[in-house]
C-alpha cells in the first residue's frame, strides 16, 4: 500500500484539498515535507499544484486513490500535503506580511476569543473569505491546539495566525499604514450594511459574551452592529464573524466586478 501516514504524530500535520494545499504552497512552502498526488490526476485543477511544488522544490510522490483515502478522513481531491504544524506568528510577522500584499488588506482581529471551537470556526471562515491574517492578543486568547486545528478543517495550517503582545499598539500601527479599524458593538449607531467597508480593513470581533475590551474599542475608527430581528440579543462570535466578513467581500466584489 505504500507509505501509510500516522495521523497521531504531533510533529506533523496532514493538509488536504486543492484550496488548502495551494494556500500552503504559496504562503508557507517551507513547512511542507511531502505532497502526495493521486496517480493519473493531472487535470487543470491539480496540474498547477504539481508545477508550483516543483518551483518551490517540494518533494512530490504519487499514490493511488485508495492510499490517499486511507491517509485522511475527508475529501482530499487528489492531493495531500504532509507538513510541519503551523505555529502562531508574532508582531513582526504581521508587518512583514503587510509589506508583501499586492491588494488592500483584509484582517480579522479577535479580541479575547478563548473558546478553541470558536477560534477554529473563525479561522475556517477567514480562509473562505480571503482574509490575509487573523490577529489576536498573546494573552487571554485561545492557542492553536488540537481542537482548533480539527474545527478549522485545514484552515489553521494555511491562515496566518498572529498573536501580538499589545493589541492596542498593533491596531495603532495598522492605522498608521492606512488600515481602517472597524469594531463590532451592539450599541453602534450604524449596521455593517449601512457602512462602507471596501477599503483596507481590520475587522475587530469581541470575546464571547463580553465584546471588545474598552481599550480596543477606543482604537476603532468605526463601530458597526449586526441588526437583530429576533428575540436573541447577539450571535455566536464565529457566526457574526462570517456574516461581517462576507458582507465585506460582497461590497468589495461590487466595486471590482
Protein described:
The protein has 257 residues and is of the alpha/beta class. The chain is built from 9 helices and 11 strands. It has helices at residues 18-28, 47-56, 65-71, 91-100, 116-129, 146-152, 167-176, 214-218, 237-256; strands at 13-16, 32-38, 60-63, 79-83, 106-111, 133-137, 161-164, 180-184, 190-191, 201-206, 222-225. Helix 2 links the parallel strand 2 (32-38) and strand 3 (60-63). Helix 5 packs parallel to helix 9. The longest helix is centred in the last third of the chain and has 20 residues, at 237-256. The model is unreliable at 1-9 (pLDDT under 50).
Instruction: Report the radius of gyration as a whole number of Å.
Output: 19 Å
Strand percentage lies at 15-25%
Low-confidence segments, ≥5 residues, pLDDT <50? 1-9
The shape, in one word, is elongated
- End-to-end Cα distance: 48 Å
Neighbour order of strands in the largest sheet: 7-6-5-10-8-11-9
